[in-house]
Amino acid sequence: MNRTAAEWIGTVFYIGKLPLAPGTWASLIAVICWYFLFQDVNPIVLPAISIFIFLIGAMAADTIVRDSKEHDPSRIVIDEWVGQWLALSMMPVTVTTGVVGFISFRIFDITKIGPVRWAEKLPGGWGVMADDVIAGIMAYFILLLFYYFTS
Questions:
Q1: pTM, full prediction
Q2: Half-sphere exposure of 13 toward its Cβ, with a 13 Å CA cutoff?
């Protein structure tokens, strides 16, 4: 992938270049976009889009990792976007879902609990993306539990 395109995609239009916690900014903006874009959309659309973004993100991240020689540069935030959207997939589009999904995803992403740490060790762009996918899936199960116990 072209270096310029990789930067645009990997940083999600330069969100990843924001100072102080670019991953948190990317997750927050992903939640806001989810809230406004997926109100009346078939629930299967979000995971389908997330898979597509994952594949493009892995290529972009791989290019950036190879060029920068860093394992997981903090400016790459497409992985947070994908993980956050996976956490919110097939869930009711509400402020509550957004808040619980955001907090649980960020906790798993930052702490790198269990399989999240293992996935991070994959090589290149796959490792950059995979840990956030696992964190997103774990956050999805937290949302399932949340709705099970609150409904």
A1: 0.95
A2: 3
Residue with tokens 């992985």: 79
Cα–Cα–Cα angle for 112, 30, 67, nearest 5°? 65
CA distance linking residue 46 with residue 41, whole number of Å = 8
In angstroms, the CA 122 to CA 145 distance is 29
Q: Indicate the residue type of 43.
A: P
CA separation for the pair 101, 20 (Å, rounded): 21
Q: How far apart are alpha carbons 33 and 45 in whole angstroms?
A: 14
- In tens digits, the chain (151 residues) has pLDDT values of 999 999 999 999 999 999 999 999 999 999 999 999 999 999 999 999 999 999 999 999 999 999 998 888 999 999 999 999 999 999 999 999 999 999 999 999 999 999 999 998 999 999 999 999 999 999 999 999 999 999 8
